[in-house]
Write a structure and sequence with these properties.
The chain has 2 domains: 95 residues, Arc Repressor Mutant, subunit A (Orthogonal Bundle); 231 residues, Rossmann fold (3-Layer(aba) Sandwich). The strands form 2 sheets. It has a 7-stranded mixed sheet, sandwiched between helices. Strands 1-2 form a two-stranded antiparallel sheet. The longest helix is centred in the first third of the chain and has 27 residues. The protein has 346 residues and is an alpha/beta fold. The protein has 14 helices and 9 strands.
């Protein structure tokens, strides 16, 4: 890469970040919801009225979105719309575009963590907006249909008949609520260390009148003694690499599972070395998310594992074997090659 190409790349990152933060603001203010709710082009005044917003701010933000090609505009610059075929992708990526705003909340605290005499890490409970975005970013139906049910032999039939299920690090429990809704004969417990996430999960379950699901504040590395040999299926999603002591968390999960039953671990498994991912923006996202979120969570003290999201498939396998699990199969996500579902047995 010559100097001019390098300059262009950095310029693209800067301008792209401007577009991304504008999409995040449009999501947060409800502007995008106005476009999702109509197939017809709208004027600035119509958009502002439907969104209960000031015309002037709507106009300026639309300028950014139009310039970035996110929103389309009429030739006379009076009407705006998002084509129907674009809306699904805008809904997905508007959540992702909001992640830098959550990263920014941690920016100063993370800066201190870099210092030799600074703190080691940051708890998720210190910036709950990160947890909210992680929950929003989960395609619950896709996870259930494409990652969980097909990969575990006989799981759907067991859930239909009624089993005890435990998810730890469940955040707001969106995936667990999806399962509880679909399989009313099974019993579900979701646990997380962030109390506000658990409260949100309880509220959502209550609003749906679900009687087969509960949420508790639980520490995966120190679970109640009466959880031993209690559950027919346990699962975690992007959790183990966040733990200061992954081995302890996996040992606790092993203890909770009934003999012969299955544990599902959906985990980041970016293949290869850092050099192999040079100029790969997909890998850049994972390294960035790990720097701001995963590493600070997993690096709480000097003897922490400090795994982070990029710890790699080989280390995942070693940790599972060390805890006593037998890996039955591994399934790489169809939508993200950096995510693998490890199906294990006690």
């Amino acid at each position: 890469m010559n100097a001019e190409e390098y300059k262009t790349k950095l310029s693209d990152y800067f301008y792209g970040s401007c577009a991304g933060i504008s999409v995040a603001l449009a999501k947060q203010t409800g502007l995008l919801d106005v476009f999702y709710a109509t197939n017809s082009p709208l004027t600035i005044s119509e958009i502002a009225e439907r969104n209960n917003s000031k015309d002037r701010y709507i106009k300026e933000l639309l300028g950014s979105l139009v310039s970035a090609g996110v929103v389309e505009i009429s030739d006379d610059s009076t009407q705006f719309h998002v084509p129907e075929e674009h809306k699904k992708h805008l809904q997905e990526y508007s959540v992702l575009c909001a992640f830098p705003t959550a990263f920014a909340e941690r920016f100063n605290a993370l800066t201190e963590c870099f210092k030799k005499d600074g703190p080691y890490g940051i708890n998720y409970s210190q910036s709950t907006s990160v947890c909210k975005l992680i929950g929003e970013n989960k395609n619950c139906e896709g996870i259930i249909e494409n990652q969980l049910l097909p990969a575990v032999p006989g799981l759907k039939e067991k859930l239909d008949s009624g089993i005890d299920v435990l998810e730890l690090g469940c955040n707001t429990g969106l995936v667990l609520i999806g399962l509880a809704t679909r399989f009313p004969k099974s019993r579900f417990l979701g646990g997380d260390v962030v109390e506000t996430s658990i409260e949100t999960g309880r509220d959502m379950a209550s609003s749906l009148n679900l009687k087969n699901i509960e949420f508790e504040v639980l520490d995966i590395m120190d679970l109640p003694t009466d959880f031993s040999d209690k559950y027919d299926w346990c699962f975690v999603q992007d959790v183990i690499h966040d733990l200061p002591k992954p081995d302890k968390g996996l040992s606790e999960l092993y203890r909770c599972l009934k003999r012969g039953q299955v544990f599902s671990m959906i985990e980041c498994t970016v293949p290869g070395s850092m050099a192999q991912h040079a100029n790969n923006l997909h890998a850049c996202y994972y390294y960035t998310a790990s720097t701001f979120m995963c590493l600070p969570s997993s690096f709480q003290q000097a003897d922490s594992a400090a795994a982070g999201a990029m710890w790699g498939a080989d280390n995942v396998r070693k940790a599972l074997y060390k805890a006593g699990f037998k890996i039955i199969n591994e399934t790489v996500s169809e939508s993200d090659e950096f995510i693998t579902h490890f199906v294990c047995q006690k």
